[in-house]
């Protein structure tokens, strides 16, 4: 064999990070950088140094996300395209909402959220049909619906962000400031996390379960819209006027979304387990195998825990700046700690004892109840410094 | 799936109790138990509102349970000894765990397990095997070690008698993740304890300081309850500072009392500003302050403190926390409601003051509680077209102008609370001065609506009230009417009318009906009541006409609609007077606002320690979950002229990611060695 030594080493080495990047990867990065520079050029006058840092962080994050998970690119580009289109239709006049066809029926934030809601509910039904019929085509339709719902949902959030500024520059703020807005965030984040695992595992049978919790969030959102008119854009109280909100809240919702996903897979696990033991063939066939559920459940909780750790720390840093102490044992903080401790315990059992099975599935379901209380219950029943978003 | 090639585990000697205890403290079960117990204990503090005045708890639980809960520390759970004790165990458990695991883990980072059996490698989930008749063991070893090296594995060779083992290792960072995360917990807890109340409690327990539980002004607090700047490493206190005043101390509230914390500098509040959105929500709270510190500053340091934008000065962080009245100067007129004669007395006082008053009903104390310049409230349904209202149709709000809140306390200590608006409020097209009254803070205010006249002043109503109480003039008026009724001459009827008016003013319409019922036979009662009410209304009407006449109007030519409506509103107000209780209505005529800013000042000596812990924790958690500690072995033995090769490996996390990497390793190796004889099954789904 007449290979040179260098050549042989080349042959053996795993391609390095830079070598693995394709032209498309570079293009993606270039596009994001260009977009961020454009945003910086247009709005830098209104940004403080923290916000510039956040913009830069977002750009890097978006690039990394697109490299790690290619579908994120299509999603981001579609959202950007639709949002820019809506912004162009708006111009500088909020009143365009009433006159412009596209804004009135599709892209005005309120309309976008209605489309999102309808698509998520449809997707839920289609995933159920897929699980029952085992038809691959139905499964693809369900995925497409979920993708569309997420896309229009994120677009709606982007447009709402702009709408708030059109109401008045001192009113404008990122739409993660009240319960209504974060419910939309929750639905979208959970859907994207699900789509990630769907692609990774190659099965669509988890969809029926995960989309169910999203549909529940949608039901709440609709009630909240029609009964309480919570969809109105409100100005921010002084305590929320901080760049911390931009990072603390989204990080939290990666956590909440992951925990919700894990809990629904816990339900699926229990059902599949029961079906196997009781010999319900049809039911078992409609569900993914327990081992896979177990694995995705672990991955979701690990990601959720990591994000939640970060979010809680960011919250503490924010509290230090707004209230004069990084920790005040305020009910919301305390419940965040409770949620954190709960999943820390779950992870310890799983990682060190290798525990699996029914107890872990049940625990993840109970974990979601604890999380839901921390998210909603605290706002409803316990008063504290975190006063936003009472029902 | 973990590697189970720990062949060097020593035989355990019999264990002593202390080592068993040590092991238990660092055990998983104990850790999980602690995590769950802390979680549950934390719930208590969120369900039961913490650090409220003790009086509130007594009312809520009764004296017996109040005492039980107090002894359990439930009013300040997170400072309770038992809670701190659990936290202490958490730190202990984590430390013991670290102590036990870290040396092993650090060793493992560099420990190449070079003693493995071919049999056990074949049992690995990820393995592959080759028979290579044309290559020597040395060549194979060379290739494999280059291959693993190119993938970032560190390798070590061990020659055994009939074979050699090449052990590869990467991802030591994963182990550090464990170290970081757990060390972080210890660090955060220690930093947190330093910043908590523990040091204060320690000194209190040693008797060095005493909690002040009396309600005394700051200057009367004894030295034993004062903390010097150098005394306290970490604290969090509050002070309310009126505009134009300066402070150099704070209150540290603890349980049912406080300490005074001295500061090494002074803060002067120049001005406090609040801004509102048109919807009435607060938009910003800002304090313009001056820091006075002769030792460190040439001249006072000006600064603006806003919510989310604290001022940090010499390690002390100063935050905007709340605001209130700082002693606004109010000028008021005590408008008589019970016919007191003479010029209505003028009063002046500052918010926070107590003013003794002499009234015909006996001595009263006027306690001025609060003054608010802006009162942004929902606009009533009838006034949605008000040009000053903002917001969406149906939910408009507007600023209803200044109001003030006061209490009138009688000699027995009973008090009624009042809230009066300075300018009249429009309702259904008419204007009213609103004055709310309630018996206790738990109740809602019920409002007296005093109708405003065409000049938007209360004068006409007040004149009406005054005339109604003016016995001689009333008598003259009624006699002059010259009316009579069956069985009553003019003089007698006039007297009846006076009595009716008097009864109405003192006790309201219902009293008239009740008295009639009591005196007239049942079958005639209905008719008699109607007669008296009609008479009363006519009498009040005549008095009102007289008031109009005195204003210079000519009621004989007809009464304007507006004046007629005013009469009805006045009657409503008069009948509500019975439950208003105060002998006068305090009309706010002038004010000089003085605001106070609530500042929170903290020194968090442990903060940087805690932040270090935060950084370690984040790092540790991500590293632990998203890197893995991976091992690969090559078992190489001469096989006749050729060589036998077994590759196998495992990772402690992300088995599927490792399986993928192992697949790639096998594929690369296959380019040198040809396809393997046996390979692990594809990763299962
Ligand atoms: C950031 C949160 C935490 C994470 C991610 C975490 C993770 C882990 C992991 C992965 C291990 C096993 C190490 C191995 O596989 O060899 C472990 C062990 C352990 N952890 Fe934690 N931990 C966390 C917080 C805590 C806390 C708050 C405690 C306090 C009680 C604790 C106590 C322990 C103990 C005692 C063990 C050793 C168990 C044994 O092997 O006997 N951990 N932890």
TrEMBL record, chain A:
One of its GO terms (biological process) is cytochrome complex assembly. The keyword Protein transport does not apply. Pfam families: Cytochrom_C_asm. Its main location: membrane. This is Cytochrome c-type biogenesis protein CcsB. The keyword Transmembrane applies. Keywords: Cytochrome c-type biogenesis, Membrane, Transmembrane, Transmembrane helix. The lineage of its organism: Bacteria, Pseudomonadati, Pseudomonadota, Gammaproteobacteria, Candidatus Competibacteraceae. It comes from the Bacteria. GO terms for cellular component: plasma membrane. It is a multi-pass membrane protein. Residues 176-386 form the Cytochrome c assembly protein domain. It is found in: Membrane. GO terms for molecular function: heme binding. InterPro entries: Cyt_c_assembly (IPR002541), Cyt_c_biogenesis_CcsA (IPR017562), Cyt_c_biogenesis_CcsA/CcmC (IPR045062). The chain crosses the membrane at residues 26-46, 52-67, 112-129, 141-159, 179-196, 208-226, 253-271, 300-320, 332-349, 361-382.
Automatic annotation (TrEMBL), chain B:
It is a multi-pass membrane protein. It comes from the Bacteria. It is found in: Membrane. Pfam families: ResB (PF05140). One of its GO terms (cellular component) is membrane. InterPro entries: Cyt_c_bgen_Ccs1/CcsB/ResB (IPR023494), ResB-like_domain (IPR007816). GO terms for biological process: cytochrome complex assembly. Its main location: membrane. This is Cytochrome c biogenesis protein. Keywords: Cytochrome c-type biogenesis, Membrane, Transmembrane, Transmembrane helix. The chain crosses the membrane at residues 21-44, 80-99, 176-194, 609-627.
């Amino acid at each position: 064999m007449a290979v040179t030594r260098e050549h042989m080493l080349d042959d053996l080495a795993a391609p390095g990070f830079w070598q693995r990047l394709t032209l498309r990867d570079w293009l993606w990065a270039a596009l994001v950088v260009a977009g961020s520079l454009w945003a910086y050029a247009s709005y830098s006058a209104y940004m403080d140094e923290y916000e510039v840092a956040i913009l830069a962080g977002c750009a890097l994050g978006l690039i990394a996300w697109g490299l790690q998970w290619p579908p994120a690119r299509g999603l981001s580009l579609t959202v950007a395209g639709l949002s820019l289109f809506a912004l162009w239709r708006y111009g500088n006049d909020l009143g365009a909402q009433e006159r412009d066809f596209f804004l009135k029926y599709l892209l005005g934030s309120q309309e976008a959220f209605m489309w999102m809601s309808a698509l998520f509910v449809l997707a839920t039904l289609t995933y159920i049909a897929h699980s029952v019929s085992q038809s691959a085509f139905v499964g693809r339709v369900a995925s497409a619906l979920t993708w569309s719902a997420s896309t229009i949902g994120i677009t709606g959030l982007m447009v709402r962000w702009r709408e708030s500024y059109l109401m008045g520059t001192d009113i404008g703020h990122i739409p993660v400031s009240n319960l209504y807005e974060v419910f939309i965030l929750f639905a979208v984040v959970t859907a994207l996390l699900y789509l990630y695992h769907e692609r990774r595992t190659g099965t669509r049978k988890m969809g029926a379960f995960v989309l169910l919790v999203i549909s529940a969030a949608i039901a709440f959102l609709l009630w909240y819209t029609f009964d309480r008119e919570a969809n109105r854009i409100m100005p921010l109280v002084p305590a929320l006027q901080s760049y911390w909100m931009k990072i603390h809240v989204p990080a939290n919702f990666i956590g909440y979304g992951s925990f919700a996903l894990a809990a629904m897979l816990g339900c699926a696990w229990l059902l599949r387990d029961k079906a196997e033991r009781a010999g319900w063939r049809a039911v078992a066939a409609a569900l993914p195998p327990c081992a896979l559920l177990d694995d995705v459940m672990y991955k979701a909780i690990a990601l959720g825990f990591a994000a939640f750790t970060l979010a809680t720390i960011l919250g503490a840093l924010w509290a230090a700046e707004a209230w004069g102490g990084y920790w005040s044992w305020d009910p919301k903080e305390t419940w965040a700690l409770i949620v954190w401790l709960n999943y820390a315990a779950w992870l310890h059992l799983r990682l060190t004892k290798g525990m699996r099975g029914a107890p872990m599935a049940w625990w993840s379901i109970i974990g979601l109840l604890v999380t839901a209380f921390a998210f909603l219950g605290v706002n409803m029943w316990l008063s504290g410094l975190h006063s936003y978003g009472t029902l | 799936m973990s590697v189970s090639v720990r062949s060097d585990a020593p035989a355990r000697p019999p264990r002593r109790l202390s080592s068993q205890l040590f092991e238990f403290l660092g055990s998983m079960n104990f850790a999980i138990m602690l995590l769950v117990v802390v979680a549950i204990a934390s719930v208590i503090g969120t369900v039961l509102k913490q650090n409220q005045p003790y009086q509130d708890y007594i009312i809520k639980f009764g004296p017996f349970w109040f005492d039980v809960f107090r002894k359990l520390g439930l009013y300040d759970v997170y400072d309770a000894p038992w809670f701190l004790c659990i936290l202490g165990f958490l730190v202990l458990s984590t430390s013991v765990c670290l102590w036990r695991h870290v040396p092993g883990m650090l060793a493992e980072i560099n420990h190449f397990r070079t003693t493995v059996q071919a049999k056990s490698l074949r049992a690995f989930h990820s393995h592959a095997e080759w028979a290579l008749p044309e290559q020597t063991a040395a060549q194979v070893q060379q290739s494999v070690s280059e291959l693993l090296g190119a993938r970032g594995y560190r390798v070590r060779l061990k020659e055994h008698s009939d074979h050699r083992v090449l052990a590869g290792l990467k991802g030591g960072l994963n182990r550090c993740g464990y170290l970081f995360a757990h060390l972080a917990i210890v660090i955060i807890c220690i930093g947190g304890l330093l910043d908590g109340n523990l040091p204060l409690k320690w000194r209190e327990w040693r008797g060095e300081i005493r909690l002040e539980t009396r309600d005394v002004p700051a200057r009367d607090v004894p030295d034993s309850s004062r903390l010097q700047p150098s005394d306290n490493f970490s604290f969090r206190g509050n002070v309310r500072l009126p505009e134009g005043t300066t402070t150099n101390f704070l209150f540290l509230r603890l349980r049912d009392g406080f300490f005074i914390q001295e500061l090494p500098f002074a803060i002067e509040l120049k001005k406090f500003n609040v801004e509102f959105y048109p919807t009435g929500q607060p938009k910003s709270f800002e304090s313009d302050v001056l820091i006075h510190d002769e030792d460190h500053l040439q001249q006072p340091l000006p600064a603006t403190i806003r919510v989310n934008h604290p001022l940090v000065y010499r390690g002390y962080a100063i935050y905007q926390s709340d605001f209130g009245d700082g002693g606004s100067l109010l000028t008021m007129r005590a408008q008589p409601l019970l016919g007191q004669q003479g010029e209505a007395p003028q009063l002046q006082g500052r918010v926070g003051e107590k003013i003794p008053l002499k009234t015909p009903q006996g001595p009263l104390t006027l306690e001025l509680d609060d003054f608010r310049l802006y009162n942004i409230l929902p606009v009533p349904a009838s006034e949605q077209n008000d040009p000053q209202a903002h917001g969406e149709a149906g939910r408009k709000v507007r600023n209803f102008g200044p109001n003030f809140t006061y209490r009138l306390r009688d000699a027995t200590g009973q008090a009624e609370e009042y809230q009066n608006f300075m300018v009249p409020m429009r309702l259904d097209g008419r204007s009213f001065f609103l004055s709310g009254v309630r018996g206790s803070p738990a109740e809602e205010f019920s409002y007296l609506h005093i109708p405003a006249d065409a000049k938007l002043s209360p004068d006409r109503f007040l004149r009406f009230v005054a005339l109604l109480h003016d016995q001689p003039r009333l008598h003259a008026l009624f006699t002059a009417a010259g009316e009579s009724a069956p069985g009553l001459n003019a003089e007698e009827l006039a007297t009846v009318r006076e009595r009716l008016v008097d009864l109405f003013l003192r006790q309201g319409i219902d009293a008239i009906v009740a008295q009639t019922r009591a005196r007239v036979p049942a079958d005639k009662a209905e008719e008699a009541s109607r007669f008296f009410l009609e008479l009363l209304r006519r009498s009040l009407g005549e008095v009102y006409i007289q008031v109009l006449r005195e204003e210079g109007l000519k009621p004989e030519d007809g009464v304007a609609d507006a004046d007629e409506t005013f009469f009805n509103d006045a009657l409503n107000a008069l009948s509500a007077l019975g439950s208003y209780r105060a002998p006068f209505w305090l009309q706010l005529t002038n004010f000089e606002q003085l605001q106070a800013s609530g500042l929170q000042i903290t020194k968090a000596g442990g903060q940087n320690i805690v932040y270090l812990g935060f950084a370690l924790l984040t790092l540790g958690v991500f590293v632990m979950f998203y890197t893995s500690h991976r091992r690969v072995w090559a078992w190489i033995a001469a096989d006749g002229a050729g060589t036998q090769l077994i590759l196998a490996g495992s990772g402690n996390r992300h088995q599927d990611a490792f399986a993928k990497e192992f697949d790639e390793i096998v594929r690369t190796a296959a380019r040198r060695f040809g396809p393997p004889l046996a390979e692990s099954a594809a990763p299962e789904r």
